[in-house]
Design brief:
0% strand; mainly alpha; 71 residues
């Protein structure tokens, strides 16, 4: 899956959780990625973040950063 598609999908998840506030959104996004994304997708989005994370919303960036410690 292309990085652009992963960014789009991750940002959509972020949009869903945004209404809960950043303190709940970031862990919610990370948990969703952990539970529902294939390990290859998680590895790819972490690699995208490590390469600069272009296009990721701020709360999604924070969630992917948190995901790095558990992937």
């Amino acid at each position: 899956m292309s990085p652009d598609r992963l960014v789009y999908m991750a940002n959509q998840i972020g949009t869903f959780f945004r209404s809960q506030g950043a303190d709940r959104a970031v862990p919610g996004i990370a948990e969703h990625l952990r539970k529902f994304w294939d390990p290859r997708m998680r590895t790819a989005i972490v690699a995208h973040l490590d390469a600069g994370g272009e296009g990721l919303a701020p709360d999604v960036r924070a969630a992917v950063e948190a995901l790095k410690t558990t992937t």
